[in-house]
Write a structure and sequence with these properties.
This protein is 33% helix and 25% strand. It is of the alpha/beta class. The chain folds into two domains: 169 residues, Thiolase/Chalcone synthase (Peroxisomal Thiolase, Chain A, domain 1, 3-Layer(aba) Sandwich); 146 residues, Thiolase/Chalcone synthase (Peroxisomal Thiolase, Chain A, domain 1, 3-Layer(aba) Sandwich). The strands form four sheets. Strands 1-7-6-4-5 form a five-stranded mixed β-sheet, sandwiched between helices. The chain has a four-stranded mixed β-sheet with strand order 8-13-12-11, sandwiched between helices. Bound molecules: coenzyme A (COA). The site of coenzyme A (COA) has 19 residues, from helix 2, helix 6, helix 7 and strand 12.
């Protein structure tokens, strides 16, 4: 038994913030941001618009694409680092709003790998017979925890959400998923504020914001993604040449290009949204997947390689026959 993707959906807040807009906030330039990251613009949630709102729109679109009623959903796994509340989970808030009350619902926090982690967990539950219709969501409002005076981080992130509906299938479907973490890298990418540390801004008095050692993260990300794509292909018994589409986490175009090169894939076979979305963390992979499906590039029967890397560090992949 496998899990197959029955439908995809996504949602971006309507407000677009360009690099030129950021030039008015911090000492930066469109040229610097674009040449280092590939980003031209990002979307930003409106005041009062939450991660749960973004997740709801993406989930509704995925359910519609799958032809599945919310009441049929028996599992919701939602990847996010920016939940609406500390509790209940954003998955529970989403469940009630959709009218899927009673089913299992929980969040997964794996930073930017959140969606691929959620997909791995839901895949195991569908394959194990515990779910017949699973909703998997990646949703974030990362712009809510940025320091808008810190040019080294505020130019990188955006808000957005994507979702898929999974159902059992005798044919693959999701062929394999790989999930990894190494908490020894916490200091390179984190937000120091939390409940149990007493809501204090942290030893460096940094406040509620993303702290990142950009060039260190870059180097580890490239090496780690290189490793995981090899591991994933090996587990699936597949060769690089059998991958039709790379659907990577959208953090930085140069990281994406390095992974594509490792796979021997031309950039025409890589789904890129980072130019328009920035890094939407858990939202990025399902947003890219949905865009690729709706534009007609990704077709049924093709092999998709999804990968992500994020704070933790966490890293994860999924090889899917769509
Ligand atoms: N505009 C202009 N200059 C900037 C800038 C900005 N937005 N942000 C940083 N700079 C400056 C730095 O202050 C530094 O100046 P200095 O040499 O005078 O000190 C210079 O640019 C180079 O900084 P550096 O951090 O070495 O640049 P970089 O080439 O490594 O690019 C990133 C920075 C953040 C774009 C890059 O490291 C990156 O993408 N890392 C991965 C981050 C990521 O993807 N995180 C999420 C993972 S899920």
């Amino acid at each position: 038994m496998y899990a197959r993707i029955a439908g995809t959906g996504s949602y971006l807040p309507s407000r677009v913030v360009s690099n030129a807009d950021l030039e008015r906030l911090v000492d930066t330039s469109d040229e610097w941001i674009h040449s280092r990251t590939g980003i031209r613009q990002r979307h930003m949630a409106a005041e009062g618009e939450t991660t749960g709102d973004l997740a709801f729109h993406a989930a509704t679109a995925a359910l519609q694409a799958a032809g599945v009623e919310a009441a049929e959903i028996d599992l919701i796994v939602l990847g996010t680092t920016t939940p609406d509340l500390i509790f209940p989970s954003t998955a529970c808030l989403l469940q009630h709003r959709l009218g899927a009350n009673g089913c299992a619902a929980f969040d997964v926090n794996a930073a930017c790998s959140g969606f691929v982690y959620a997909l791995g967990v839901a895949n195991a539950m569908v394959r194990g017979g515990q779910s017949k219709k699973a909703l998997v969501v990646g949703a974030e409002t990362l712009t809510r925890m940025l320091d808008w005076g810190d040019r080294s981080t505020c130019v990188l992130f955006g808000d957005g959400a994507g979702a898929v509906v999974l159902e059992p299938s005798e044919e693959p479907g999701i062929i394999t998923t790989k999930l990894h973490a190494d908490g020894g890298y916490k200091h390179l990418l984190y937000n120091p504020v939390g409940v149990s540390v007493g809501f204090k801004p942290g030893e460096d008095n940094a406040g509620v914001r993303v702290l990142m050692s950009g060039s260190e993260v870059f180097k580890v990300a490239v090496k780690t993604l290189d490793r995981i794509v090899g591991e994933t292909l090996e587990a699936a018994g597949m060769h690089e040449s059998q991958v039709d589409w790379l659907i990577p986490h959208q953090a930085n175009l140069r990281i994406i290009e390095a992974t594509a090169k490792r796979l021997g894939l031309p950039m025409e076979r890589v789904i890129v949204t980072v130019d328009r979305h920035g890094n939407t963390s858990s939202g990025s992979v399902p947003l890219a997947l949905d865009e690729a499906v709706r534009s007609g590039r990704v077709q049924r029967g093709q092999n998709l390689l999804l990968e992500a890397f994020g704070g933790g560090f966490t890293w994860a992949s999924a090889l899917i026959r769509y």
